[in-house]
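hiii so my PI (J.) wants the whole complex modelled not just the main chain, which honestly fair. so below is everything: two entries, each one labled with what it is. i double checked the lines twice but i was tired so who knows lol
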Amino acid sequence: MTVKQVPLVDYLHIGARPYLKAKACTSCGARFFDRRIACGNCGAQEFENARVRNQGVVTSFTIVHRAAPGIPAPYVSAIIETDDGTSVRSNVVNCEPDPERVKLGMKVKLTTYSIGTDDEGTEAIAFGYEPA
Amino acid sequence: MAKSAKGKTKPKTSGPMIDDDSVWVLGTHMTKFGRYPDHDAVDLASMSAIAALQDGGVTIHDMDVFAAGTLFQASSGMAQQVQKQIGQTGIPAYNVSNACATGATALRTVMLSIKAGEADMGLAVGVEQMGKMGLLGGAGSKKEAKVFAPSGRYGAVTGTDGYIGTAGMPGVFAQAGMAYAYENDGVGFEQFAKVAYKNHLHSTLNPLAQYQKEFSLDEVMGAPVMSYPNTLLMCCPTGDGAAAAVLVSGERLKSMPKKVQKRAVKISASILTSDPWTSSAQVQPDVNTLTRNAAAQAYEQAGVGPDDLDLVELHDCFATAELIHYDNLGLCEPGGAGDFIDSGAPFRDGRTPVNVSGGLISKGHPIGATGIANIYEVATHLRGEAGDRQVKGAKVGLAHVIGLGSACGVHILEKAA
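here's the output for the full assembly
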């Protein structure tokens, strides 16, 4: 039986070759991940889909030890700048949550993983970045 | 303090003249920050408002406008509730909420009324009663969904905090600091920790601080990690408190007795900014650009530069935040915030004392009160009334707050003649 899968957020494309998809302003090129009415940079109202590059570097991170209730800790939260200059917030996965292991400037690449299955058997897929 | 070596941009032999169009702090007050289980926010705000009026030698009947700031009770009609305690005179009353810049925005609301010619005098109060709220920012929403159905602006099928990085404040500000460390040399865990060491040390001289306890650098670095590099001792506490200020027009101040004029403190600059668009801010709040913009506008409006500042109260919600604001406010060379703290410059006896009150980290951060409490702190030093923590001969000071979202308030205050 095949399990139905859904992405954690709608800007994650799942499947054999997952990637993040941004809405790019056709006027100024600004990229967004959320639902848009207009562009926060220039105010234009037309967008096109843009496929975000899967490779990037860690430009900032924190290791969260005290998380909100229900969230397993420690984990690594990071800001990734992808090779096409898009900023992404993500967990760094498949990497020990230790400042000796996570490094500023570290090269990473997109990966996906399951975060669980709901009452109807649908599996939610999240993204993270792992050391490249 | 080797002030003479700093190259003042203008002579400060006497204080500013009283221009008709200028706006001044006539009276100010803050409660001790801490826990007030037997009082509510209306009590705290009312007590501080009355004390600020008394400090200025005026009464509620002299006020033409009133603004009250609170974040967590933003829909409570705080202004009117306080009026019902301290005097219902029928004046315009504004309820103000603007994240951590709420207090500064309330102050500016009164200031704008005076600038617009609607008021000669007004009262601003900021208050918050947080109790022990714990971590802010993280939604804690990661309960298992029964059915994964997309909702919200990102089409999320369940809570994303902890899956898509952190939304918790210690982590968000840790990332702000670590981005600076990525771009600049000489910045790491130790530099961030020194900020907290300094502010805890400063707080031992401030009886109004929520905590007044010194911790060694080793203790700061060895405390439980909240969000690396921020340890528990590098994070501001939650708490209760209020602060208030009475503002007056220069024209009205001129008609007041000389000894009242002498204690008045000039608001040489009052700036509020929001975020210009930056490409990374949709995933990580950019606390830098709007602070830099606010600082540049404030220095221009006041006609002073960073080297003229005798003290600075800035928004050290986390130690990582204070460090980057040294650079954002132009207190150090570009990229030089690590050297700045290592050199001892922001310590009380240093070149540019920063957060001699103990800062948010130790003085406390009842959110709505913060943006007026820093005005209180700077004004108290300029009046020479800061007791044991007095920065000697202080003539010019800067107060900065930032609320995520974002809103940034910068005020520059100058001593009267």
